[in-house]
Amino acid sequence: MSTKNLLKHIKVLTFDVHNVLLTVKNGAPNQYARLARQHLGIQSIDESLLRSNFVQAFRTLNTTHPGYGVNTNISSRQWWTLLIEYTF
Question: Which PANTHER family does this chain map to (predicted)?
């Protein structure tokens, strides 16, 4: 199959950019805590608990919905929404 024909069949292309193309300054849990304080008015956030919850949520979702849900009928947006819900 030619490259041109192969490209016709591709509908979505995703990249796992974490620590490859970009990094999150101070880590994602730190950013989540900052955004919760800034946009949700949540001032009392235990960042070490948030970090622990984030790691556990990420592991759980990678087990229950590997590949950001590609084979379990959830969108990547739903996957990330679940991650945030489980983290908090």
Answer: HALOACID DEHALOGENASE-LIKE HYDROLASE DOMAIN-CONTAINING PROTEIN 3, PTHR46191
